[in-house]
Amino acid sequence: MQPNFQISHRDENDWTVVEIHGEVDVYTVPQIRDHVVGRIDEGRRRIILDLRRVTFIDSTGLGVFVGILKRIRERDGELRLVIASQTVRKIFDLTSLYGVFPIYDSLDAALTSP
């Protein structure tokens, strides 16, 4: 595990909010996948990945987010991302994934958007 990496979740309204702190890379992706897939397997269909405290994302991180999105869509669910860092947002822009994921500036916006 990477130093300073943390992942946790909580239920808020009808959403499960998964907070990720630190780097999303080849070392942390297995934990992220297991954690989020565990929530999906428990029947959670509306998930928000709170990436406001993520400092770096590599290609394996992007890949795990795409995989999670596919798994949720197969179950008629919804995935939203919260990204505050312009550096992290730029990764989604450069890879053309910005249009694939609904991305919000704040957790409140992600929770209240129709």
UniProtKB/TrEMBL annotation:
InterPro entries: Anti-sigma_ant, STAS_dom, STAS_dom_sf
Pfam families: STAS
GO molecular function, one term: anti-sigma factor antagonist activity
Sequence ranges assigned to domain STAS in this UniProt record: 5-114
Family: Belongs to the anti-sigma-factor antagonist family.
Name listed for the protein in its UniProt record: Anti-sigma factor antagonist
Organism: Streptomyces himalayensis subsp. aureolus
